[in-house]
Amino acid sequence: MWTYTGELAVRRSFHTATILKNGKVLVSGGSFVGTVTELYDPSEGTWASTGRLHYERNGHTASLLKNGKVLVTGGIGDAQNSAELYNPSKGLWADTGSMHQKRIYHTATVLKDGKVLVTGGFNDSFPDRTAELYAPSTETWTFTDSMHYGRSSHQATLLTNGKVLVTGGFGSVDTKITELYDPSTETWTITDSMHYERRRHTATVLKNGKVLVTGGYNEQALNKAELFYLKKK
């Protein structure tokens, strides 16, 4: 059943919600909300304001790092190539360099070594195929190998073997092409295509290691679901 649990201070869409290591939930960004960020406390069922973002943004990403901080990247607004770090112990945001490319509706995936892989997104002119790595230890950005296809509104899912599966998205059209990123070689390879073109879908790793892809959009909303699994050699 559902129960009411208060209201955010401002109305939001295209925002992010990130579970912190202390169990609270950090809500950041969104359309028409300025730089306001909020914390939800599940133990009390209450909302509280926390430090403001430096830039307005929506269509961004928010990733919990292994050090407990939250990395926010890109998005619509003045923020397209900027990145910020939220420090839960201080409740404050700090700039952490800028990506090499402007990005909206991109992805950010925390790798097993703690680095963050940022892929694709819309770069003002077209869906981009470049990818970058963020190193939390040095707070620096470096380009890595580019994807074979530019895409935005896609998904990038960390697999149990440490590789990253990128699915779907919008290039010049919606795509069913998928790619695998290998962090050990920093290279991309094309893998089996999905059965359906889709963007703004979900891709969830199951306990058995398979990836469940659901819904999305391709001229209309989809009700199709499919499973991805790595072939045994």
Automatic annotation (TrEMBL):
A Pfam family it matches: Kelch_KLHDC2_KLHL20_DRC7
Tagged with keyword tRNA-binding: no
Presence of the UniProt keyword NAD in the record: no
Top-level taxon: Eukaryota
Keyword set, alphabetical order: Kelch repeat
Example GO biological process: negative regulation of cytokinin-activated signaling pathway
InterPro entries listed in its UniProt record: Gal_Oxidase_central_sf, Kelch-typ_b-propeller, Kelch_1, KMD1-4
Protein's name according to its UniProt entry: Uncharacterized protein
Organism name: Rotaria sordida
The organism's taxonomic lineage, starting at the top: Eukaryota, Metazoa, Spiralia, Gnathifera, Rotifera
